Amino acid sequence: MAPKQISSSAAKAHDFIDFLNTSPTPYHAVHSAIQRLKTAGFKEIKERDSWSSTLVPGGKYYLTRNGSSIIAFGIGKKWKAGNPFAMVGAHTDSCTLRLKPVSKKTGAGFMQVGVEAYGGGIWHTWFDRDLSIAGRAMCKDGKGNIVSKLIKVERPILRIPTLAIHLSRASNFEPNKETELFPIAGLIAAELNRTGATEKKDDKEDESEKPFKPLQELSDRHHPYVVELIAQEAGVEVEDVVDFEIILYDTQDACIGGINNELIFGGRLDNLGMTYCAVEGLIGSVSDPSALDDESSIRLITCFDHEEIGSTSAQGAGSNFLPAILKRLAVLPSHHESGSDKSYEKVNKDEVDISTAYEQSLATSFLMSADMAHSVNPNYLGKYESDHRPEMNKGTVIKINANQRYATNSPGIVLVEEVARRAKPSQDSTTSNGVPLQLFVVRNDSPCGSTIGPMLSAALGTRTLDLGNPQLSMHSIRETAGAYDVEHGTRLFESFFEHFSELESKILVD
Fold first, then answer.
1. What does the alpha-carbon distance between residue 72 and residue 282 come to, in Å, rounded to a whole number?
2. Measuring CA to CA, which residue among 318, 316, 313, 320 is closest to residue 305?
3. I need a labelling partner for 438 at 20 to 30 A (CA). Which of 19, 247, 375, 488 fits?
4. How far is CA 33 from the centre of its chain?
5. Which InterPro entries does the record match to this protein (predicted)?
6. What domains lie within the chain, and their CATH numbers?
7. Residue-by-residue DSSP string for 242-296
8. Are 31 and 152 within 8 A, CB to CB?
9. What's the CA gap between 388 and 438, in Å, rounded?
């Protein structure tokens, strides 16, 4: 019997899982996105360089900041200065634990590592999981430079043990983040046996003979074997590792789950789920060689670091990263300006005033702020507004809040609804075009989270809508989402990029 052909939605879910499993940190997520963009023909550019002779209408480009945030875009061949941007924004970070600058700790014969809580995680879910480390190391390259190297230790080396129920009868498990969230890395005796060292060294090297170091040696600040593992993963000698930023992650891979393979189980779904859909939606919209021929806008995605801690950083949504890039793109010359022998004055008479091109672009642009949404939890129905209970695999969720915790308004809903209606059908679908959408508001007696949407809409003055695919267990180390919604989100963004230029001029709101 011939093997059953996998559906397009299942293929998309499996591809997303591959993306998820290779992206334990924001640095890895950006690296994974870059590999996909490069394969699709996107070229790297740098913020520090001049773009006047580099960027051309019809081109596809990407750039990064700090290695943890990325912007990618395709320029329509009919672009001219002051035209709109069609944008999807997401974030690359997730709630996690990070190694402290001085992480070496011991207690009761155990080696432990000090960690810092990043974001509002459900920290009790991190207990009794098989953990390892990933991130980036700054290393000497032998040429006098310090370069960044991605690190991912594949095997479990850390664990945060719970206290046996016999020793604690507390009804609620609320661990103290400073005293009870330290992972164990092994036993001191085993480490001494491995190295052949003794627990105390009597003949220490004379401190006056050591070269001056502004900071302690890495092997004094962290367990030496941790530093050795990082050096090994970086492919350098221990002495070539200058510093590192290390994140803990669960070594259990994300996977397809559910009795009918309709679910996804894994960590970091918030928000790599929407990062993946943004990247794939942009790539899909420019996959045809002629896709940008009749395009007058710039199709752009931006995926920021540090959303989970407020976005206030050089690479967060509250930074100048996106505004600075948009300002430079808004004044790009059109195709006939950059490639014609006609004089600039003659060509430019019908063009926008360059001095106001940025403001004009922002006034006609649109941003989809894409962050995972809440699915209804059948065990806690009372926590949801009765008419707003999003379900997994029923489509992307439009998020609304009267107090502007989300930036959605009715003109944005009108646009997205039309974009969803025009979306191409799934390859294995027997129905007509379109992807489903859902609506969500929180109860009046419940707090509401927020996204990058409100801060970007306020900073840019650009029309913005918040949306995301539904999931359960948000901010847990192990979350759940719908397998079919991966394709829903990807097709929605692809349709947005393909149809925005036509739709933008038809929704008449100042």
1. 8
2. 316
3. 19
4. 9
5. Peptidase_M18, Peptidase_M18_dom2
6. 8-94+267-504 (3.40.630.10), 96-197+212-250 (2.30.250.10)
7. EEEEEEEEE-SPPEEESTTS-EEEES-HHHHHHHHHHHHHHHHHT-STTTTTT--
8. no
9. 8
Residue 415, both tokens: 């646009």
Strands (E), 410-488: 437-440, 463-468, 470-472, 479-482
Amino acid letter at 209?
E
Residue with tokens 């809508």: 465
Residue 109, exposed/middle/buried by CB under 10 A (0-12, 13-18, 19+)?
A: exposed
Please provide the DSSP assignment of 29-91 as one string: HHHHHHHHHHHTT-EE--TTS--TTT--TT-EEEEEETTTEEEEEEE-TT--TT--EEEEEEE
- Pairing of the two strands 60-65 and 69-75: antiparallel
What tokens does 13 get?
């879910």
Tens of pLDDT along 469-491? 999 999 999 999 999 999 999 99
- Which residues of the chain are under the pLDDT cut of 70? 1-5, 197-210, 335-352, 428-432, 508-510
**pLDDT tens track for 346-389:** 444 455 688 999 999 999 999 999 999 999 999 999 999 999 99
Q: Name the one residue in this structure whose structure tokens are 């293929």.
A: 11
Residues 44, 62: Cα–Cα separation, whole Å: 5
- Amino acid in position 269: L
Distance CA 372, CA 396 (A): 9
pLDDT of residue 216: 86
Give Cβ neighbours of residue 105 (< 8 Å, ≥ 6 apart): 111, 112, 113, 114, 182
CB 240 within 8 A of CB 140: yes
Amino acid at 416: V
Distances (CA, A) of 455 to 193, 228, 372, 466: 54, 42, 17, 12
Q: Which helix (H) or strand (E) holds 190?
A: helix 188-195
- The sign of the torsion formed by the CA atoms of 417, 418, 421, 425 equals negative
- Is 155 within 8 Å of 103 (Cβ atoms)? no
SS (H, E, C) 291-325: CCCCCCCEEEEEEECCHHHCCCCCCCCCCCHHHHH
φ/ψ (deg, to 5) at 146: -110, 120
Give the pLDDT confidence score for residue 428 in this predicted structure: 64
159 φψ region: left (φ > 0), alpha (ψ -120 to 50), beta (else): beta
Q: What is the largest CA-CA distance in the chain?
A: 85
Two tokens at 150? 């991605």
Q: What stretch of H or E contains 421?
A: helix 410-422
Q: Residue 118 corresponds to which tokens in the numbers above?
A: 């990043």
CA atoms of 401 and 466, how far apart (whole Å) = 10
Strand ranges (E), 361-483: 366-370, 373-374, 396-399, 437-440, 463-468, 470-472, 479-482
